[in-house]
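Dear Dr. H.,

I hope your travels went smoothly. While you were away I took the liberty of generating a structure for the chain from your last submission, since the lab meeting agenda had it listed for discussion. I wanted you to have the full record in hand beforehand rather than looking at slides cold. The sequence, exactly as received, is reproduced here:
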Amino acid sequence: MSVHLHLLAATAARVLRQARHDRRTLAIVLLVPLVLSFLLSEMFDENAQLLDRVLLQMLAVMPLILMFLLAAVGMVRERTSGTLERLMTTPAGQVDVILGYATAFGLLALVQVTVATLFSYFVLDMEVAGSLWLVLLTAVFGGLLGVSMGLLAASVSHGEFQAAQLMPATTIPQIVLCGLFGPRDQMADWLYWLSSAFPLTYVVEALEEVGRYAEPTSWYWISLGISVAFVLALLILASAKLRRRTD
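The corresponding predicted structure, in token form, is as follows:
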């Protein structure tokens, strides 16, 4: 299974050009995370320690949700408009297409995470023990996780509405059980083991390690490695499920 880098790059560039001219996409990428972070800072203003924890965890949760929607709806829209079918008549294979979309939306995730992280650090005064660069690196994988889940949803969906339906079904259980609402080790055993099967759990736990420790711990690297493995597995599955023709 070969990858055609020039076709991959062309696909990514086209998606980015479209996103640049779409005001709603730009608002989701640049403004929505800032508004949500600001609202959280107002809610927990009197508890600085809790606010730092919530803001840090939201750097994993927000990119997951928003990039899932952008990637899933964007790809399904191109399929229904015929753009994806025309692309698939070229030498580009499923892997080229999926990686092209993943590259484009991954760059958007990088922009989103960078803006949200810098806003939390320098405007909302979020404090963590670890490095800013580790926070950025880890949060980016939250965005990439959302991208890969969104592309998989688009690959198995027949329309935008069906892809959007998959978002709450696949993301809400992860958000509830990732540790956002309480420590995982205080959950019932079956909930703990269920949460261990969800990729978002490991992004959140990696961020929590950065928040607690000045230097990256072994569990940080393990959690980050598991997150990377989930992203790659989801992209491979999306490539396998991508249909060449619209039903």
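Two observations you may find useful: The mean pLDDT is 86. The chain has one domain: 5-241.

With kind regards,
E. W.
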